[in-house]
Specification:
- With 763 residues, the chain is α+β, with helices and mostly antiparallel strands.
- It folds into 6 domains: 3-77, Arc Repressor Mutant, subunit A, CATH 1.10.10; 82-153, OB fold (Dihydrolipoamide Acetyltransferase, E2P), CATH 2.40.50; 158-229, OB fold (Dihydrolipoamide Acetyltransferase, E2P), CATH 2.40.50; 254-497 and 565-638, no CATH class; 502-559, no CATH class; 650-762, Nucleic acid-binding proteins (OB fold (Dihydrolipoamide Acetyltransferase, E2P), Beta Barrel).
- The strands form 11 sheets. It has a 5-stranded antiparallel β-sheet.
- Helix 1 crosses helix 2.
- It is globular and about 95 Å long.
- The mean pLDDT is 85.
């Protein structure tokens, strides 16, 4: 078989099996593939022995990826069966949700298929959260029954949990992740003795096999001690483990780290554009250690800008299906919880060879863009490169330059370039907003910690010019890469964002009218139909006086969750028809996938089987799920830190604002950004949906009311600065309430109202 045919073989095999309604044998696949290629090239094609080996391996790859299902002695494409492939998710109500990871052909085009199926508990067939499963739909319509036919990829390999002892069953692990609460995981005594593990240890347990046919009984094959339940330093990691995020890397990954070079090798330079003499620098937070983006900018003779965005070439060091890649995929994202980072990649890579540190050569993928004075990308190029960053800059010091303040001597040589960059960033921002990108006007919440890692406060950090500059440059690079892949018909894992929830938007507009900010320009249907209309609502909300930030946060919650998918529906919030994540491969797995696709296509590198649409469906669903888990960890740890902080102030009073009302009470944000729920003891209460008000006894509270509250004792939370006696009492309380779900929402009691002239009206 001639080399030119190899390009078509994979696609032709897929088409042969996809278009065959009956099971087709391997010999039949080979013969029909040969005929299709002969017809395409108008010449007889004869497969050599080497060619047959290639074809055999391609068919095996499709079987391994479960696009081809074995039926008897032949194969059927999964779409020609009653089966569907997807990722199994355990829902809070006890049912399962399977998100389909397949595609179908229409008019010669391959269309992603992302249907969702609800599975009842008695039809799980041993499936657990995260497993890749094959489901079968029996019957049609309302009488159809959906069940898990088999588990294709069992993700339940490692369990994190706490060691307990039962007088009848001996030692066992109770999983920290509540999605696995029904599992019984037994530990042999020899493992306990060998690892010196005792009751109360928190452990990483590798599962061996099912002891019986019951899907919830496992034995441990090996066990690693992590900490003890009485070690408060591990609380952040434990919260992460509860939601399926871990701070672990396999032994094989650490071996891979050991043989990863600490500097760019001569062999790494071959075939790359040498940009080491180019003026280049990074701009990040002052404490950032993992720098995956650097920038260069100049003015061309025609008056256009030449912007280069250099992104760390993580894919060069983390190859597909390597141990590090498998760990990175399992995590899918770095998690930033409190004062702790749970990295997707080991620090040895993320802060070392994969970080664009100053004054050292680093491998990168560079997206060069020629941008005109209106902010349009009129030309671009994507290449493998070598760069050498001149300086690690901080947002604060760059903002000093833009504000006309004293310039740090190290920054002076780059001041002219920075001003040019800011000019370009403002142009890009103006164009983006004009095209319908929504600005919510809320800065990032930033926690303040002492030298011991204890939270001592929080504030809202508003993005200034330097932060916006980096944001605009990353957005235009992400958009350019997505447009490039789409233009040439290459596969792409898009970052997509659907329309907002119309009911939630209608509820917000109703709330605006209730509290005196009448929004009569558009109704909810108008707002969700077009990002430009939603922008009008966002701008209105942002300008709603002292409540602007709080109302903007409610508007954000009405928006759909952004996710990763090969099915491009555009990005509603950014107002973009094409958008992907390319700029952060150190901390986001989808970015790493985009880099690999660029290498397989544009950059002409070959690293085994190419990324397929089926791969992207599975990766998109899984990484979107893990991203939501990471967000939950960050939120829960923040709430926990707030509650712990407030427990040092029990009995003291603070001023705050009612930011939410629900059937059982109120939520108040203090002026110091701490939050908690208001407690109403022994009072009749009533929540009025029509007026969005809450009655407690003779008092009526509304959204936005200014109140003074007293901090109450919360037994589910330990004060940050606790004594040994307090800690012992806290542990005793937890042991006596093992089945209780932690309530970290610190409790307040309203002691008065704050009037418009700041006088306090005591209750």
């Amino acid at each position: 078989m001639k080399s030119k045919y190899l390009v078509d073989v994979e696609n032709e095999i897929l088409k042969v099996v996809r278009r065959s309604k009956k099971a087709i044998t391997k010999d039949e696949i080979i013969e029909k593939t040969r005929n299709r290629i002969s017809k395409k090239y108008a010449e007889e094609v004869v497969f050599s022995r080497e060619s047959l080996i290639v074809i055999d391996s391609i068919i095996d790859d499709y079987v391994k990826s479960h696009e081809f299902i074995e039926i008897g002695n032949g194969y059927k494409h999964i779409n020609n069966t009653s089966f569907h492939k997807g990722t199994f998710n355990l829902l809070k109500n006890g049912n399962g949700l399977v998100i389909e990871d397949t595609s179908y052909e229409k008019d010669g085009e391959i269309i992603p298929q992302e249907e969702e199926y609800i599975i009842k508990k008695d039809s799980f067939n041993g499936a657990h959260d995260g497993d890749l499963v094959l489901i079968e739909i029996i019957g049609t319509g309302k009488r159809s029954d959906i069940r898990v036919e088999r588990i294709l990829d069992n993700k339940l390999d490692v369990i994190y949990g706490e060691v307990y002892r039962d007088r009848n069953f001996g030692y066992y692990v109770k999983p920290v992740n509540r999605k696995y609460k029904d599992l019984f995981i037994s530990i042999d005594d020899n493992l306990i003795l060998g690892e010196k593990i005792v009751e109360g240890n928190r452990v990483r347990a590798k599962l061996d096999h099912k002891e019986t046919d019951a899907s919830d009984f496992y034995r441990v094959s090996s066990i690693d001690k992590l900490s003890h339940k009485d070690d408060p330093k591990e609380d952040v990691f434990w919260e992460a483990l509860r939601l399926g995020m871990d701070n672990d890397f396999s032994d094989e990954s650490w071996e891979q780290v050991d043989w990863t070079p600490a500097e760019v090798l001569p062999s790494d330079r071959i075939g790359r554009s040498d940009l080491t003499d180019l003026e280049t620098f990074t701009i990040d937070g002052k404490n950032t250690k993992d720098m995956d983006d650097a920038i260069s900018c100049s003015r061309l003779n025609n008056g256009n800008y030449l912007l280069r965005v250099h992104i760390a070439d993580v894919a060069h060091y983390v190859s597909k299906n390597s141990p590090l890649d498998k760990d990175a995929y399992r995590k899918s994202t770095s998690t930033y919880a409190g004062n702790t980072v749970i990295p997707m990649l080991p620090h040895e890579l993320s802060n070392g060879i994969c970080s664009l540190n100053p004054n050292v050569d680093r491998l990168a993928v560079t997206c060069s863009m020629e941008i005109d004075k209106e902010g349009n990308v009129v030309n671009y190029n994507i290449c493998n490169s070598i760069i050498n960053s001149d300086l690690k800059m901080s947002y604060d010091k760059v903002n000093d330059i833009f504000a006309g303040k004293q310039i740090d001597p190290l920054y002076k040589p780059f001041a002219k370039t920075l001003l040019l960059m800011n000019q370009l960033a403002l142009t890009l921002r103006k164009k983006r907003i004009k095209e319908g990108s929504i600005e919510f006007g809320i800065g990032d919440k930033e926690e303040i910690y002492d030298e011991n890692g204890m939270m001592i406060g929080a504030h809202e950090r508003e993005n200034d010019y330097a932060e916006n500059l980096i944001e605009e440059f990353m957005i235009v690079a992400n958009e350019t890469v997505d447009k490039h892949l789409s233009r040439y018909g290459y596969p792409c894992l898009h970052r997509v964002h659907g329309r907002p929830n119309e009911d939630k938007v209608a509820e917000l507009i109703k709330l605006l009218n209730i509290i005196g900010f009448s929004f009569n320009m558009l109704d909810a249907n108008d707002c969700v139909s077009n990002p430009k209309y939603m922008k009008q609502l966002a701008d209105f909300v942002k300008d709603s006086g002292d409540l602007g930030n709080i109302l903007s946060a409610r508007l954000i919650r009405s928006m759909a969750k952004a996710k990763y998918s090969p099915n491009n529906i555009g990005h509603y919030g950014l107002g973009k028809t094409n958008y992907c994540h390319f700029t952060s491969p150190i901390r986001r797995y989808p970015d790493l996938v985009i880099h690999r696709i660029l290498k397989e296509t544009t950059l002409s590198e070959h690293h085994g089987k190419k990324t397929t649409l089926s791969d992207l469906l599975e990766i998109g669903n899984y990484t979107s799920m893990k991203e939501r888990s990471a967000s939950d960890v960050e939120r829960i740890v923040y709430d926990k830190n707030c509650a712990s902080f407030l427990q040092d102030y029990v009995g003291e009073e603070f001023d705050g604002t009612v930011i939410d009302i629900f059937e059982k009470g109120l939520r108040v944000r203090l002026d110091n950004f701490m939050e908690g729920n208001v407690r109403f003891d022994r009072q009749p209460t009533y929540f009025d949906v029509d007026t969005y008000s809450f009655s407690a006894g003779d008092e009526v509270y509304h959204f936005g009311d200014r109140v003074r509250v007293e901090v109450l004792k919360n037994y589910d939370v330990l004060p940050l600065h606790h004594s040994e006696d307090e800690y012992e009492d806290y542990q005793k309380y937890l042991r006596e309430h093992l089945d209780r779900i932690d309530n970290r929402n610190s409790y307040f009691k309203i002691t008065g109202r704050i009037l418009e002239d700041n006088k306090i009206l005591k209750k």
